[in-house]
Every structure is written in C-alpha cells, then in structure tokens.
Design brief:
Layout (H helix, E strand, L loop, with lengths): L1 H6 L15 H13 L3 H4 L1 H55 L6
Length: 104
C-alpha cells in the first residue's frame, strides 16, 4: 500500500478514492503485465528450457531423416549389387552365345 501511495499518489479525501496514476506509469504497468504474460520472457530458465525442447524436437526429426536416408542407401546398394551380378551374368551368356559364331 505504501509503495503504491509513493508511486501513484495519496488518497483523495473528498472523493474517497486513489488519485489516478500518471499516464506513463499506466503504460509501464501494462508493458510489465504484457511481458509477464509470456513465462518464457519473464523467466530465463523457462526460456532456456523451451529452447532446449525445440532443439530436441529438431534433433529427433533430423535423426529420423538420417535413418530413412540410410535405409534408402541400403536399398540402393542392394540394387546396385543385384545389377552388377545380372550384368556379369549377361556378359557371360553373351560371350558364350557369340563364341559359336565367328565374324569375319
């Protein structure tokens, strides 16, 4: 109560109410009220924890994408090995087929 009286003013005897606070102080109070509506802005630990949570989500998503790429790479490696074996088999078959005929 005393703090408010020092900041705003004394009680008016004729009206029985507190005198109105100066406009600048009302604006300051509203700014503080707005600031403290967001806990992340008011408390640095809460802000850091929120940042860490966002970082964890991004990290998990990145790890998932890397694992998916790894699976895709494994599929590509298997397909390339299969293609290599098939091409070797084709080469052997073509060579044996062409060995019966001599081109002059």
């Amino acid at each position: 109560k005393q703090w408010y009286q020092r900041r705003v003013g004394r009680k008016s005897s004729s009206e029985g109410t507190w005198s109105q606070a100066p406009f600048a102080e009302i604006v300051e109070i509203r700014q503080q009220f707005t600031l403290y509506q967001d806990p992340r802005a008011a408390d640095s630990l809460t802000a850091i924890q929120g940042d860490l949570d966002e970082t964890k989500v991004i990290l998990y998503n990145t790890i998932e994408q890397v694992l998916e790429r790894g699976e895709k790479l494994d599929d590509i490696v298997a397909k390339s090995e299969n293609l290599s074996m098939t091409s070797k088999q084709f080469y052997k078959t073509a060579k044996s087929t062409n060995s019966c005929c001599v081109i002059l």
